[in-house]
Amino acid sequence: MRTQQFNIAIAQSTIDWIGKKVTGAHNGTIRLKAGELSLADGQITAGRFVVDTTSIKILDITDPATNAQFAGHLASDDFFGIEQYPEACFEITSVQDNHIKGDLTIKGITDPVAFEVKTRLNDDTLTVTGTIVIDRTKFGIKFRSGNFFRDLGDTLIYNDFELNILLTAKAVEVPAQAQI
């Protein structure tokens, strides 16, 4: 069995987010901070990545003042509480074919998530793409959730949000003795 270790290339990896509400949606980006993946015979077997919650950006609001206000609200305890929780983390717990299960930690709360990925291995570069759908209320993010508040009308924010991931990772040279 051939095993390989990969470090996620932060500058070449992206996470795009989409949050929806009754009257529309917002989208943006958030950066990775670190990560690694393990492969055995070309299949992902383990991995972990850390997200820098302080890097959240909103792309669909072009007015600078409105964008800053919304970014401040996402950073607040109503949403991600980035002052206290500057990182979120995902750790793979199992992989079957291209179906990944793992533990996602946001705001210090860990909950299992599962999603499909597509992988491509080209020499020493591994590319992984997928979409993770997350129920924000499982991580204590209840602001304007219909599960916790009544009569929100058109101010309701849907519980699920999406993270569209593109991970690019580079192979790590492992000494020959370590592969035995």
UniProtKB/TrEMBL annotation:
SMART domains: YceI (SM00867). SUPFAM superfamilies: YceI-like. Residues 5-170 form the Lipid/polyisoprenoid-binding YceI-like domain. This is YceI family protein. It comes from Chitinophaga varians.
